[in-house]
Automatic annotation (TrEMBL):
Entries under PANTHER family matching the protein: NAD(P)-BINDING DOMAIN-CONTAINING PROTEIN-RELATED (PTHR48079:SF6), PROTEIN YEEZ (PTHR48079)
A Pfam family reported for this protein in Swiss-Prot or TrEMBL: NAD_binding_10
Protein name: SDR family NAD(P)-dependent oxidoreductase
Lineage: Bacteria, Bacillati, Bacillota, Bacilli, Bacillales
GO-annotated molecular function: aldehyde dehydrogenase (NAD+) activity
Every NAD(P)-binding domain range: 8-166
GO CC terms of this entry: cytoplasm
Organism the protein comes from: Lysinibacillus mangiferihumi
Amino acid sequence: MKKALVMGASGGIGFAIVSELAARGIQVVAFARGKEKLQALFENYPNVSIFPGDVFNEEHVRKASDGIDVMFHAISFPYQEWEETHIQCIHTIINVAQTQQAKIALVDNIYAYGRQSSIVTEETIKEPHTKKGKIRLAMENELKASSVPSLIVHMPDLYGPNAENTILNETLKSVISNKKANFVGHMHVAREFLYTFDGAKAIVELALRSDTYNQNWNVPAVHPITGEQLVEIIRDITGYKKKVRTVSNAMIGILALFSPFMKEMKEMMYLTEEPVILNGAKYESVIGTLPQTSYQEGLQQTLLWLKKRR
């Protein structure tokens, strides 16, 4: 890979993927809607050019894709817009990739797996029971039905520098402001939170190889962790002493009566009580040791980022 396009480059995982590609000396086109944020993030990055554009404008995507080898799809949309956006977006990316003879690396989540009673491998049957899980599976099927070589990389909940639209960020930004913080989900249930730069290292490593395409890959976090344990680490790093409130499924249900976003959030709250835990054995058998930053280090770097941007 000599040149790559990262779509959704101004988001948390997109930012990490651009950073990882640039660090490896690969030419990167950072694509997102907002010019100012792209400039702020990447103005001092070697090997990175920015391209502000609309993913639903195929001509924008085509121009941004000139000469690229791999298109990294790291675009996120607000929950309430998923039905109108995600399938249209994947169609545009597939069309452009076919024209450019490029490959696609999709950053996927765990929603398509649905409810699972044990740790999931790439062979686990996907039976999503939620609307958003069915949309993610439809995206996967669109890629597999196309002629474009693709990677589908499943990652759990993310956190890290610039990862603003994440559940854990809601907790961390209150900690930095020394305000009473919220934690979404049961404090005693162990879930996975993947540091974005670990996810980026893994997907770039997969994208650089020729024997990894047209497959699914799981990239788990360093280990599952409870909210209680996370808060303990955060307090150790920051000295934060205020109470952390639990935002329960029932509370989200009440808010869902008044908020379209919370109505969509309610559907996914089962994951805070019945977490999907990923098995990364396939990656380790083919590629090697998974990138695994400790929660202590990952949270320290994330909090430092937030503090600098206050």
